[in-house]
Amino acid sequence: MIETTGAEVLADRERLLRTLPHGEGINGIITTDRADKVLYVLSRYDDSVWWLPKSKSPDHAPDTLRKLDFTRIACEQLRSEAKIVLARKMWVEDSLGNASTRQTFDGLVCWLNWLHDQGISSQARVTPLVAARYVQYVHLLTTPNKPGKLLASQTKWNKLSAIERCWQFLRDTPCGFDHPWPESSAIALSGHKRSNKAKTDIIPDDILRQLFQHAEFLLNRADDLLKHRDALADFQPCSKNHNDQWEERVEFLKTRGWDQGPHALNTKLRDLRDGCFVIILATTGIRAHELGNIRRGEWYSEVRDGERFYFLGSRSDKTHEGTASWLCPEIAIQAVKILEQLSAPLQIALERELKKAKAVRDFKNVTRLEQCSNCIGLTKQKNKGNGVFLLSGNALYKRIRKFAKNLGVDWMLASHQFRRTFANYVVHHKLGDLRYLRDHFKHWSLDMTILYAMNETQDQELYDEIYAAFDGKRQAIVGHWLEPDTPLSGGMAGHIRQMRNRSEEVRTYKDRKEMIEAISELVYLRSTGIAWCTNDTGVDCAGGQCEDCEHGCIDDSQKPFWEGLYMQQIELCQIDDLDDSGSKTVERTMARCEKVLADLGVDINRLKEQMADVEAI
């Protein structure tokens, strides 16, 4: 590795900026990285392979994704043009992550190799007609791992964007060309439509319940499993024969109450690790790479108004946010502590590797090891000399899929599903739907703004996702109210019916969807359990009399509650020793229920008959 300085890097960049348009004498440092406070050269402009800095990749990302191999481009002239485009894009968008740079490079490889196959050796010969032929070519491409299946519109967009980038960054060079499609764009030609609709599936309740309960079961057994592991690590077999040593370990574990052998213990410890991952993902909304970036002791708690709040810290690379933290329940911290213990032996091995790498000045390895040191998601890779690495996103995906498969769960589980599922649970909790994780989400019933104000380093994008989920749910509720056949009750029902009529008469919106989005923006919404409350001031609350309150709206989704409440009052009427005060309370409550249920289209007499039928049985 060659050491360098910031001044030398800047000087090379200035020289490259001057020489790129002319295409002569192009040389200098293109990428650098830092290890042990030393800045070193990763790649020079004239190298056939450019390595992107490790610092711009998530710690778990494999090194192969940082490699830009220009020999993949068949023609030498087109290879030179690709370097100009890549260099300028990297400098213009300095904060660009390696994944985006790699995506741009792959798009260039496809475009430039197609040009070579057409007998075109420089982009100076590209015309709108040539670009149009490439569009046709891309539309006929199929997915490599699914023969016969055409590319998704997003993938087509990425490939066609390569031409626009070449046009943008080559205009002042001899290989520049006119705009490939003056009347259109890559996104339009790809047929890709940006949508606000979430593409990620929400994990179904029964699936998440099964995963979480098993993970919690393993967490409760963690102390015993770790004690067995540590005792086995300290145990010294007497025999020199490998098979006999194995039998000694089996017998040793039996004396400790574990009769399934060392292999089963290791399997259970891996399951425990994966269960801890599930708990953290499910209760924080953290991304996979942010989970990988969690380091030992990177959490804290605060007591506010007599209640303890827990915060989990990490580093977020996706939005270049840097240090961030997440409000979380105590069980997530318990999972982190167990992961700290599980990864302790690997951390010791990592420190040994780091010491060796520093001794031989292997800066590339020093950078990698320093970035994953003290992380809780460490693993050993047998195909890389049994070295210590951070668990990759792909490996995490496989582990949680296996965790689910071992439970017999029929669901294509992925780590990113937990984030959207988390946001969905938060919104449902706020809107009165208390599901089985209610104890873990209790803090989320508070106002999001207040929570964010508690700690400005919290993941703001997660709040955006929660608000987006809330908007979606709110639009669904308001849209349901505006349906002409939706039964409504409550003090606000009349206003909503009037709005339905007005919306038919006055066409102020492009379509019904736009109308619902606009109206729902004006509606503050929360659940009282018996109704939807739209009072955004908290003043003049009816105190449980939502059906008479001007801010209250009751729709058919709350009908089961009112039916249940009504049946309870019928049961109370049959109590012999109910005093006069109690009887009047029951009568008033029955009258309330009958009014609401009648508004919702329920046959009260039929409900009484059902109650009588149950009593007869």
TrEMBL record:
Q: Which UniProt keywords apply?
A: Coiled coil, DNA recombination
What InterPro entries does the record tag this protein with?
DNA_brk_join_enz, Integrase-like_cat_sf, Integrase_catalytic
Which molecular function terms from Gene Ontology are attached? DNA binding
| Occurrences of domain Tyr recombinase (ranges) | 251-468
Coiled coil start-end: 590-617
The highest taxon in the source lineage is: Bacteria
Its GO biological process annotations read: DNA integration; DNA recombination
What protein does this entry describe? Phage integrase family protein
What species is this protein from? Answer: Marinobacter persicus
